[in-house]
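We examine the record.

___
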Amino acid sequence: MIRKQPLFSRAVPQATVTPKRRSFLGRVWGGMGRALRKTCTVIGALILFSAFVNILVFSFAHEEKKIVLPEQFILSLTLDEGLSEDENPTGGLIPRSLLPEPMDTYAMIDAIERSVNDKRVKALAVSIDGGGFPMPAVQELRGAIAKFRASGRPTIVFSPSFADASANFTAYYLASAFDEIWMQPVGMIFLTGIDTESPYIRSALEKIGVKGAYFQRKEYKNAFEGVTSDSMSEASAEMNASMLADIMDQLLDDVAADRKMTRDDVMAAIDLGVLTDEESVSKGFVDHLGFGDEAMKALRKKLNTEDEKSMPSVVLEDYRDARGHEYLQALMAKKPGEKDKKHPSVALVNVSDMIVPGTGESGGLFSDKIAGAEDISAAIRKAAKDENIAAIVLRINSPGGSPSASETIRHATSYAREKGKPVIVSMGSVAGSGGYWIATDASHIFAMPTTMTGSIGVIAGKFDLSGLWTKLGVNWDGVSVGENADMWSFNKGFDESGTERMNAMTDRIYATFIKRVAEGRNMTPEQVEDVARGRVWTGRQAHKIGLVDSLGGLNDALDYAAKDIGAGTRHDVRIVRLPENSGPLYDLMKQLGIEARMPDSINAMMKTWNDLTATSTMPGGVAVYDAGLNRWK
């Protein structure tokens, strides 16, 4: 057999060397040396990464680009990743404060609403090409589109197909808000209605010796019903049917109104489930079958031109950045005395995902979505003490979590109000259980009609794995001091004493929850009990029963806060996002003594920007407008 050799070199034979046996002290010293080198390597890498992030931010902020908006253009937006709310694209690896301002749902809404009074914008064109579309976010965006349509300018939407089962038919629900709907030939619409289903695995768990030992307050608090029952309870079925009926009622009203149909027409199509391309047109759910470029060509023709150069499209994000640049230039052009006008600030505090005690470090390395009570309450208290901040908007998008953590955040909102700062709550897709608890002391609560909220109840318990260990022949043994020392052990169920303690705990938490809601909503405990019992409500239902003050989204809450402090609208205030720094990398760097911040020159420049502008929702860098750019898909 011929051994292959390296193409450009030949290995040099080496003499065999017998290694010397090192002493015990030498081996220990060598191990310590290797550990020290690895530690230094990790720290060095973090320092380099920190420098890289600072350079990246520096380049964002210092990238000077010529902003040119043409005299007339089509405003375009491509939704190929659905709708998101203030997402960190690095998953929390890089602190949000070190990243450019996101183009999330609310930035889209704000930019569209700003374009309503911009005579250069002749039309709005949106392409929908996949992703998730939460109902509350869709409803907020539909509101902005309705304002644009009211200005008399055309709006069109294109999608290859509205047949994404994961989106149900919320993508089409968004599309129905436009004047014209275009769909690609062979596309389809999945109008499959709304359903909810859950697995019930009690019998399956019992087969392997596992039981669910949970205590709930009260009958509608069904989070762990799937492991304690084999079927949906009557209370759960009643609650789910009520919520789905309310959501369907909203969908039928909105789609029928926008497409100039009857509710019966829409419901008949929903009962079919799937509409082919030709059926979609014949039944009035789609206006034209064609491709994206054909849709744009038809829109330009409606605007009395077919020339892309005379009627280019401008991407919504570029338009937002360009408008911010124009606003800054206008302020710079004013006389020095005119530029010194101070704008009040409104703090925007986000509470996303599970509410937990301590800091958000519990989210892990690749997540900044855990709502740490220490972080959130500290941000609220900071805003309460800041003389430059006149109001606080608490954006809640959380299914709940720890009662004690929720109480910590609620107490901070109470402290802010004692300091004279109004606290306005804006509920996102969900603000239930602990998510509602933290809202109880707010000055005013906003929710979208399809927000899931309420769930004023308690559930606690554990899994009992004792039967599983018996089947596996595993015997756990040990010693303990205290009658309930092993109360939380998964190796046994709750005994009589443990059961008594669990009931006492859940009763106390539920009673406190009822009291907090009663005090915050100016209701009697009996009135709260009637709408509590762990029941989840849609935002529209919650508004009718007094758990919510107004129906509206984040921008409505910001407008309300601005008006409450005598500043007009959200465009007349500076919006300050808190907490300023978050994410596991930031926390790790802080522990290592590495400062995660922008360079001083960037901070100085951003301070000047904030002093000049009425809103801090614009990014530090601005985008180039390319007259030949067409981002339509």
User: Anything to note?
Assistant: Residues 5 and 14 are 16 Å apart (CA to CA). The first strand starts at residue 73 and ends at 79. The chain has a mean pLDDT of 81.
